[in-house]
Amino acid sequence: MNLTSISLEFYLALSAIIFVIGAAGVITRRNAIIIFMCIEMMLNAVNLTLVAFSAYLGDSAGQMFVFFVMAVAAAEAAVGLAIVLALFRSRQTVYVDEVNLMKW
Amino acid sequence: MNIQIIAFFVLGLLAVATGILLVTRRNPVSAAVSLIMHFFALAGLYLTLQAQFIAAVQILVYAGAIMVLVVFVIMLLNLGKEDALKERFNPRTALAIALSSALALEVLLAFLSTPTGFNEIAPSAEKIGSPAEIGNVLFSGYIFPFEAISLLLLAAVLGTIILAKRKIED
């Protein structure tokens, strides 16, 4: 392996690792806000893949996709945190395993 | 060793380390701070890929706007440390480790099983990442999704206000 320039696989592997760390966080954590932050991290891992492909293929479509993903993530952040606030107001908890009203 | 390689490994390690910190910290505020550092590391990685505009937007939108919102909600709810689960060895952690390592194997296999053959950044990448070129493409080929996003943001603003306001006493 010559290290004069870095190949696309390094970026893909890095974003896969970050995505999996985020997925593990979503499964293990109880705090809704931290689960929410882990989802943001997974979105960012996908963004990194898109930007890497865009740069290596010389195509601007990937960066457009990242732009739209960021807009959707901003909307999701606002609505998600409002849901957490509403949940805390009615149940006095943000731990997802204590919110089991719809569980049977 | 050129600057891109050094920057990639330093920022990549920082991104993975802050990601692990986010998942393991009990205190939500320190988790949020490590996520902010993670976003800065990713902005640096975008810069190594010549995506200047995306890097700037990453810092403005994620490290700025979204994280301010998250920290604000953490302060508003006055959350303490997350208490540990009762059992010493809980099945959820074991399941999470098993599932996420299976996922890691799967994704890495899908990405790395065949070489992509792209060993260098395309020469046109520097032009593609500039704000002028992004604007050009966004307002010509992607004008409909751009308008659709404005509708989505409007719906999100209305939904947030409805969800977050207190019930009006009737």
How does this model look, in words?
The complex is a heterodimer of chains A (104) and B (170). The termini of chain A are far apart. By secondary structure, chain A is mostly helical. Chain A has a single domain, classed as Helix Hairpins. Chain A is built from 3 helices and no strands. Helices cover 75% and strands 0% of the residues of chain A. Chain B has 170 residues and is mainly α. Chain B contains 7 helices and no strands. Chain B has a domain of 83 residues: Four Helix Bundle (Hemerythrin (Met), subunit A). Classes of the chains: A mainly alpha (104), B mainly alpha (170). The interface between A and B is large, with 71 and 85 residues.
Give the % helix of chain B.
over 70%
CATH class of the domain at 1-83 in chain B reads Mainly Alpha
Spell out the CATH superfamily of the domain at 1-83 in chain B. NADH-ubiquinone/plastoquinone oxidoreductase chain 6, subunit NuoJ
Low-pLDDT residue intervals, each spanning 5 or more residues of chain A:
none
Distance between the termini of chain A: 55 Å
Total number of strands of chain A = 0
Question: How many angstroms separate the termini of chain B?
Answer: 69 Å
CATH fold category name of the domain at 1-83 in chain B: Four Helix Bundle (Hemerythrin (Met), subunit A)
CATH topology of chain A: Helix Hairpins
The major pleated sheet of chain A works out as:
none
